[in-house]
Amino acid sequence: MGIFKRLRDLTMASINDMLDKAEDPVKMLNQFLRDMEEDIAEAETAVAKQIAIEKKFKQQYEEVAEIVAKREEQALKALEAGNEDLARRALQDKKEQTANRDEFKKQYDIAKENADRLRNQLSEMKDEFSKMKNKKDLLVARAEAAKAQKQINQAMSGFGTDNAAKGFDRMSEKVLQLEAEAEASNELRSKGKSLDDEFNALGKNDGVDDELAALRAKLAAKKQAE
């Protein structure tokens, strides 16, 4: 496929090499696509030049073809006018112009064939670029998922380790110690109550005794009524 195939093959080899060595595949994929865009831009310039050559030969061919037809008409008019010498000279120029026409036609055909081939190759490059862009999006998504998984794995590697478990055990022992100290403090406080405090406690009424007495009175009244 000429220069375009070589460029594409070189680019494909480059991406594989870059991805093998890349620390950040996403950055390298973006760089690769930028390189492809540059290749396509250069290819478009080359195609434009070839198309210009094709059009030039086509124009020259058409102009000379018109001259050939014109000389034949002029030779016919000269004969009709009885001027054989003028007709001869018209036919002689027609012969020379016919040779030029045939050469321009040959060059035009070659230029058109080259331009068509380059157009097709450029189209293939653009199709390949489009495929690579889609593939790049997929690879980027996979790379981001892999990075996220790696981060989670690193976080999980320090999560729930022996150190953390031992720390929880120490805190549990600390809480038990605090609870024991609180209970001991309550016991000491109870033992330290004065005699007056104990008598005051005996005199306290939480209201249950009063309710109980009322129920007894109600029950006695009910029995008397029977």
From TrEMBL:
Keyword terms, alphabetized: Coiled coil
Coiled-coil portions: 26-142, 168-225
InterPro entries to which the protein is assigned, alphabetical: PspA_VIPP1
Pfam family membership, one: PspA_IM30
The keyword DNA repair is annotated on this UniProt entry: no
Coiled coil listed as a keyword: yes
Domain of life per record: Bacteria
PANTHER family: MEMBRANE-ASSOCIATED PROTEIN VIPP1, CHLOROPLASTIC (PTHR31088), PHAGE SHOCK PROTEIN A (PTHR31088:SF6)
Family named by the database record: Belongs to the PspA/Vipp/IM30 family.
Protein's recorded name: PspA/IM30 family protein
